[in-house]
């Protein structure tokens, strides 16, 4: 029964210890809370720095890729220009060769000799030669109206004179 009479109360310095412990606990709790908030703020700042770094790197990457694409386009057009210039020089060389060949065959005697030896052609004789007049006024003009109105007498006079 002694336990029933005993009351729960603290006397003397025990009360002060309890208050000091409560204050220390409050300080520790506030310190822990401050550390948590400080940690959260640091994490947010780190995340912001990381995001800024990622944004900067992505912008740098895009600029670098754009420059590389432009250089590749320039390189391909330069390659096409070089190919076209080489084709032009080849065509000029072929043209010069053809001009030289034409100059070689410009001489009639060489053409005559080549025709006789390679192609078996013969010199034309007087009996085989024919002369044609190919001047502009060589062909007769036909007037259909005048032929219908002519008589037999006009036709005979026309043939005679």
Description:
With 161 residues, the chain is mostly helical. The chain has one domain. It has five helices and no strands. The longest helix has 92 residues, at 13-104. It is rod-shaped. The N and C termini lie far apart (180 Å). The relative contact order is 0.02. The mean pLDDT is 83.
What's the gist of this structure?
The chain has 161 residues and is an all-alpha fold. It has helices spanning 2-5, 13-104, 108-117, 144-149, 152-160. It starts with a helix and ends with a helix.
Query: What is the CA–CA distance across the termini?
Result: 180 Å
- Individual helix count: 5
**Secondary structure tally: strands:** 0
Oligomer state of the chains in this structure: single chain
Sequence stretches where pLDDT stays below 50 over 5 or more residues: none
Biggest sheet character: none
Question: What is the overall silhouette?
Answer: rod-shaped
N-to-C order of helices and strands: HHHHH
Radius of gyration: 59 Å
Task: Return the domain count.
Answer: 1
Protein name: Cell division protein FtsL
Transmembrane segments: 53-73
Organism: Hathewaya proteolytica DSM 3090
Keywords: Membrane, Transmembrane, Transmembrane helix
Features of the shown structure:
single chain, 161 residues, mainly alpha, 5 helices, rod-shaped, transmembrane helix
């Amino acid at each position: 029964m002694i336990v029933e009479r005993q009351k729960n109360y603290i006397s003397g310095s025990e009360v002060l210890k309890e208050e000091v412990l409560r204050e220390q606990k409050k300080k520790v709790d506030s310190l822990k809370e401050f550390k948590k908030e400080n940690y959260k703020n640091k994490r947010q700042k780190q995340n912001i720095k990381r995001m800024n770094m990622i944004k900067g790197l992505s912008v740098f990457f895009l600029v670098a890729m754009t420059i590389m694409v432009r250089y590749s386009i320039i390189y391909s057009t330069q390659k096409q220009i070089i190919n076209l210039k080489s084709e032009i020089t080849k065509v000029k060389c072929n043209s010069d060769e053809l001009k030289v060949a034409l100059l070689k065959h410009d001489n009639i005697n060489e053409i005559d000799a080549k025709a006789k030896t390679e192609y078996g052609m013969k010199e034309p004789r007087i009996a085989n030669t024919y002369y044609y007049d190919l001047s502009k006024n060589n062909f007769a003009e036909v007037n259909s109206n005048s032929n219908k109105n002519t008589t037999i007498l006009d036709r005979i006079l026309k043939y005679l004179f």
